Amino acid sequence: MNRLIYLDNAATTQVYPQVLDAMLPFFTEHYGNPSAIYSFANEAKKAVDQSRSTIADLIGANTDEIYFTGGGSESDNWALVATAEAYESKGKHIITSKIEHHAILHTCEYLEKRGYEITYIDVDEKGTIKLDELEAAIRPDTILISVMAANNEIGTIQPLKEIGAIAKAHGVLFHTDAVQAFAHIPINVDEMNIDMLSASGHKIHGPKGIGIMYIRKGVKIRSFIHGGAQERRRRAGTHNVPGIVGMGKAAELAKANMDNNIKNVSELRDYLIKRVLDEIPYTRLNGHETNRLPNNANFCFRFIEGESMLILLDQNGICGSSGSACTSGSLDPSHVLLAIGLPHEIAHGSLRLTLSEQTTKEDIDYTVDKLKGIIERLRSMSPLYEDFVKNHKE
Ligand SMILES: *Cc1c(COP(=O)(O)O)cnc(C)c1O
User: Fold this and answer.
1) Is any atom of ligand 1 closer than 6 Å to the C-beta of 152?
2) In the CATH scheme, what is the code of domain 5-11+258-393?
3) CATH code of the domain occupying 17-254
4) Pocket lining: 296 vs ligand 1, CB cutoff 6 Å
5) Where are the CATH 3.90.1150.10 domain residues in the chain?
6) Whole-model pTM above 0.70?
7) What is the pLDDT of residues 194-220, one digit of tens each?
8) How far apart, in whole angstroms, are the C-alpha atoms of residue 151 and residue 160?
9) Which of 19, 51, 195, 368 is deepest in the core (most CB within 10 A)?
10) Which of 148, 180, 352 maximizes ligand 1 atoms within 8 Å of its Cβ, making it the mutation to test the pocket?
């Protein structure tokens, strides 16, 4: 049993060999600081520019609207905190959704403690934000709407274009945490009226610890990390050149293969979903049936506790994830599953499987076969299930 089936690509991805190859010379050969004057640093400088331009191109932005950061979490923190500070004189009200990543939600809590007011918009039972509620929440002192492009747990893709149109009509800035969507599905910052966008390298087969923020020209926000004059004085710190090169290469590969990847991965995802729903009773799919990330499947199995399922999957070499317990060892069910209206006891039995272009049909068949046995075994030990079966026989 040395098989490894990695189905946790929403948590992180493998760095592609081409990405690593592109990065390596910038550790050893072209190690110059891109901010330096001498020509030895030119290769590094050129590579940073090239990556910025590839990434800008992928979302329809201008090159000078892309800022490199230390990852998705930093970009999210920057977008919220710096916008809050820069637009304080207009107001202290921010709108977001109930299903954001903790990089957004915990930053919102931080701002609440500092006198900002945050409105958390509901989602429907498929995880789509309620647009009428969003629009109704806008007030004269609203400075920012931050809604994620696609949810990291249940995969639901949000109506970015509609949100952008609402934000624009009311003169409010729109930020989107696109960490799960960037380079996975098409995004265009102009068509969608996006003013700021967060993305991360390691969710797209690039390295960890590198991300970007897109900031539309004219948006006032300033530095979040203070120090040198890098990134047009908006993000200090010596450029992570290998990381930047790696993220650029990953974005380039994603762009070249996007249509194919979407088609192939979503076909495999649908095959996985169909097999699980057909072959494992008392199971539901979480998130939108069609309007979801190509690589995301998320299930709830009744009478099952997510943790034990993950441990047994791990014993079979399968990496998956559960909504609960991913944060600080807490056993609270996921805030996303509660927001789509699931009761606690059902939300506890959730399993997220996220595919990549490398996933094969054999991987899926092996996983479903193992999963069936695991669910059966866990249910056979569950008193709740026993009661349920007894009551149903009568
Ligand atoms: C992973 C993730 C983040 C955090 O990105 P890091 O680069 O790991 O800091 C933020 N938002 C979403 C939706 C994510 O999936």
Assistant:
1) yes
2) 3.90.1150.10
3) 3.40.640.10
4) no
5) 5-11+258-393
6) yes
7) 999 999 999 999 999 999 999 999 999
8) 12
9) 51
10) 180
